[in-house]
Amino acid sequence: MTLRDYHLTLHDVADHQPEYLETVFSLANGHFGVRANDPITGNPISGTLINGFYETAPITYGEAGIGYATNHQTILNLPDFRHIHVATASGHDFTNSERTAVDLDLTTGALIEHYTLQTLQGETITMSLKSAIGQTQTEFWAASYGFTAGNYAGSLVVSKAVAVPAEAEAIASADPRKTRMAGLPICETEFVGRNLQRYHVKTRKTKQAVTIYMGMLTEGASLLRQTVDLSDHDAHSLAYEAYVGEIGQQNTIDPAAPFMANSFSAILADSRDFWQDVWQRSEVTVSGNDELNLAIHYNVFQLNQAAGRDGRTNIAAKGLSGSDYEGHYFWDTEMYMLPYFIYTNQQMARQLLLYRYQTLPKARQRARAMGVSAGALFAWRTINGEEASAYYPAGTAQYHIDADVAYAVGKYYEITRDIDFIKQCGFEMVLETAHFWEAFGSWHQEGTENRFEFHTVTGPDEYTALVNNNYYTNRLAKHNFELVIYLAKEILKTDPHGLEKFGLGSTDLDVFENLAEHVYLPYSKELRINEQDDSFLSKPRWPVERSTPDNFPLLLHYHPLTIYRYQVAKQADTLLADYLFPEDLSEDQLKREYHYYEGVTTHDSSLSRSIFSILAARMGDTEKAYKYFMDTAQMDLVNLQKNTADGLHLANLGGSWLALVAGFSGFYVQDEVVHFYNHLPAEINRLTYRMKIAASVLEIDLTATSTNVTVISGPIPTYGVSVNGHLISLEKVS
Fold first, then answer.
1. Separation of alpha carbons 148 and 232, rounded Å
2. Where are the domains of the chain?
3. The CATH classification of domain 7-280, taken from the options 3.40.50.720, 1.10.3720.10, 1.10.10.60, 2.70.98.40
4. N or C: which end of the chain has fewer CB within 10 A?
5. Taking the C-alpha atoms of 419, 420, 424 and 430 in order, what is their torsion angle to the nearest 10 degrees?
6. pLDDT in tens, 275-304
7. Three-state SS at 200
8. Which residue in the list 22, 283, 462, 593 is annotated as catalytic?
């Protein structure tokens, strides 16, 4: 497969509103992100977001209760790096700006834009802006501004300095996805020489600190005043660089150091090398459909941009493209985004899991606060590991976050065999979550059946809250128990005494095995499908007259208690468990469940459609699978959810990759065998993609009549490989 160039332009996006373009063309590197705001006019939500740099503010409840989350955690919107001030020699400011062209090169990470600038007096010039962000040198961002005469051809006066954000009003919105203001940090700015400005910011409550530098890449130049002569009608350029330090209590960087070894070309080269490596390991090509090709590459591009890489940060719901959901990390990472990294970049996957391990002490505290005597409960939404969900019925009650984290640990080990990570971090997380389920659940005798049940929980479907025995939750908890036993045996293979530090013996494993065998999984004998929970199927369906486009998403139009009393789902719930455990049910039962739950699902969550696509492909309904897939693949590029301006839908980006890989190519791993089933829809002539299994990069190539798997680099994997139910021998491309 030849690696191709992919460019996203204004012609490829559905909306040209400034706030939308800021999001779609944002640049990031896991450490910080820069929204692509208009550099002349700016925008209220433009600026810079640093992953994990946040402030807190007390959550105000009308009626508070024991164990409620106490503080908002809000990622801070820091100075706008892109803003520049341009004026004529006579002092006429260029205040009007029109973005005329944009080109985001997904193979190098370079963003090139063109603007027409105009003064109130009608004078015009054109301005180009080329920017890039470091990908291994993650502290750096650089930009080059080019100016060309329009009907004005005299001198320009250009200035650029870091501007402290103005006080913003708290958002008064019924939309729970919107960011709440947590207060402004303490800011100090000073000039360190003519061409370098230092900006130091420290949060008031969390006591975090970061230092930012903005400098010119021309020695002796002045940030505050540069003169550009356009009388020769040639293009003239000015280059700038920003440095964003690591988050810490103190910053002792030599102010002259950040710009000594770097330049625009060096940062661009660093970005280009990073992306070449990404595509070498995870290239995806859909032959004959350029629009779809571009969408998938864009999704993978933004997924890589958003992921924290230091073991201390994770992937926010909007990545680093916007501050909605306050920059919080959710279960989205483990269930929708981490799989991409597990199968393409295991080191990145390890770092994302390590973040969860760092929050384990706070998860133990959270379990005690919730009245559970053992184990750990990871926060539903958080930055620092503490629960920040003010609405517990659709937040804290989603206890399945514990089993989601455990599931991700298991999948990571399944494909990497990284036993050192399991011994040091992974097993402890799986064990502590299993202890939580053990203490949280309760036994119930139903006739001759002894069940282990979980009461008053919320599953993935946030339109059905505080129910008993949510199928997804129970199935994942069962897996959590089974995973403890499996990983314990893996540890014992390499160290006969390896479980002693965890205080585990063989009788403890017997307890987990007994619990796993008796976890109750609700099933409707009448409909012959798994029940979403004990009460879901007995509720009336959502009224047809309320099922109009004007009423969606339901969460913005109806009180939660109105929604809760109906049989209506926000997203895939029971079906998500069906996707995760394909061996659990027959094809006939899958079809029954799929058609039933599809009829009551609104897809108000961006996490939903990818799962419906995967399962439709698995059932052989490739036409429906393709329809759902296209919604996931192009969600932000067509602004499907109508809120991309607030940030990208990161979980959906991961879901679109899953829909291709797990859906159309039927990929899953079970018992050390990598399975592929060809479910290619008629709309796609050929699908080729790469993934990493252990130390081997595989290329999978599917057409309507063939499925080929070859080794691109690394050794022949020890895993078995099955295509359409038959084991095959792998060959290595020479």
1. 9
2. 7-280
3. 2.70.98.40
4. C
5. -20
6. 999 999 999 999 888 899 999 999 999 999
7. strand
8. 462
